[in-house]
Amino acid sequence: MRWRVLQVLAIATLAADWLPGAAGFTSLAHRAVCERTGALLRTARRSPRARSALGARAHLNDPARNSLRYRSDDWARNVLSLPRSRVLRRVSFHLLSNVITCAALVLLKTRHAVALSLPALPHTLLAGFLGLLLVFRTNSAYARFWEGRAQWGTVMNASRNLAQLATIHVHPLSIPLCARFLELLAAFPLALAHSCLAGSIPVPARVLDALGGRPSGGLSPASAICLELRDALARLAPLLDSSGCEGKSFAQMLFHQERVSDMSRLVGELINALGACERILRTPVPLTYSRHTSRFLTLWCFSLPLVVYDALGWRTLPVVVGVCWALFGIEEIGHLIEQPFNRVRAADESVTTDFALRGLLLSSQERTTKLYDYGMPVELLAAVIADEVDAISAARERFHPITSEGTGVSIPR
Question: pLDDT confidence of 405, banded at 50, 70, 90?
């Protein structure tokens, strides 16, 4: 019961921050609530009964359940953060235009200066078609978002496989060639993030180092790295023939050749993922569809006060504001996620570069949800992939082959 009371008090003090002149009081009150919560937590550590109750709430600190995903008990935070909504800011001009028009019509009709009204049946019939248009527009944008995320998943899987194959099969043949291949592989996701953001960020220094500071000859950095990866695999060919594999059996040579062939196929998957991301970036949803949806929605909302005034009177204004906010927001969400690649900005209080390079996420729900507000943080995804390639590269010392005495079998250390 005390937990519920503290939760209600915390929400109340946060809500009171919106009242003028209450900031100082509510700050002290919120601090008191937090101190009381801490006292209860310390008691829970000492009391077996309280520890049992606390264990039932342990899932709140579970990263798998409290990281990037929306939780149903976040409704209060979401309602209170509505004035800071990015969607609301983007539709504010359109919404304000409707509010002013609706207020003027309500005022004129209240003073009986205008007797114009519209029947409800046409609006009711058109509402279904408008809903279909909005749903199709939003679903089309979400499909682009999900395809982009799937392509980044392909890059993660292919990079992981390539790093492991290079560590196990290329390192015994040529240590410098393996190091060069892993350097290029770790730089590829960073170059892909640069391409996904349409060159709005500088080319990462690691990408320039991997390319040796040489001009790419008109190729994008990501495409140039793929070309270098192909070249590195081509240099393995002399090492896979009979003269380059002295001391190895035919079966061992064939096995290495098959794995290098697999690596070439995986590099092709990286190239395909690059092409898919470029297709998403450079091909918008057909503008005719977007324009027609916007015109249809605008005319429907502007004429809505003439339909509902006779039934609602002065209450028409708040009703129209709510309806317009909901519909404009749905349309704007489709516009936001149509281009799914997003930056991690310090102004958004998202993860910093140091966190990204270690592949970590902040534990605070209010910060981590900002990563996927309206797109995917490609810089973070790229840094996580590069980190994993580096980790596999660092672990290769454990896989140096050692030939056991008398058996001729290679075993890991």
Answer: very low
Is residue 174 left, alpha or beta, with left meaning phi > 0 and alpha meaning psi from -120 to 50?
Answer: beta
- For residues 124 and 118, give the distance between their C-alpha atoms in angstroms, rounded to a whole number: 11
Helices (H) and strands (E) in the chain, counts: 16, 4
Alpha-carbon distance 298 to 327, whole Å? 10
Q: If you average pLDDT over each of 73-82, 342-351, 392-401, which comes out highest?
A: 73-82
Q: What pLDDT score was predicted for residue 182?
A: 93
Q: Is 63 helix (H, G, I), strand (E, B) or coil?
A: coil
Q: Where are the alpha helices (DSSP H) in 111-174?
A: 120-165
Sign of CA dihedral 309, 313, 314, 317: negative
Cα separation of 189 and 244, whole Å? 32
Q: Rounded to an integer, what is the distance from CA 163 to the centroid of its chain?
A: 24
For residue 311, which amino acid is it? A
CB 95, CB 324: distance < 8 Å: yes
Q: What digits encode the pLDDT tens for the residues 281-293?
A: 998 888 888 899 9
Q: How far apart are CA 245 and CA 234, in angstroms?
A: 16
The predicted structure's pLDDT at residue 394: 86
Those residues whose C-beta lies under 8 Å from the C-beta of residue 309, and which sit 6 or more positions away, are 105, 106, 109, 117, 316
Structure tokens at 36: 């009381």
Q: With contact defined as beta carbons under 8 Å apart, do 332 and 136 qualify?
A: no
Structure tokens at 311: 């039934």
Lowest mean pLDDT among 10-19, 98-107, 191-200, 356-365: 356-365
Taking a C-beta distance cutoff of 8 angstroms, is the pair 229, 267 a contact? yes
For tokens 């492991």, the residue is 164
Dihedral of the alpha carbons of 225, 231, 235, 240, in degrees to the nearest 10: 90
Torsions phi, psi for 410 (to 5 deg): -85, 130
DSSP string, 156-194: HHHHHHHHHHIIIIITTT-HHHHHHHHHHHHHHHHHHHH
> How many residues does this entry show for the chain?
413
Instruction: Find residue 410's DSSP bridge partners.
Output: 403
pLDDT at 198 over 70: yes
Tokens of 380: 């973070």
What spatial distance separates the first Cα and last Cα of the chain, rounded to whole Å?
57
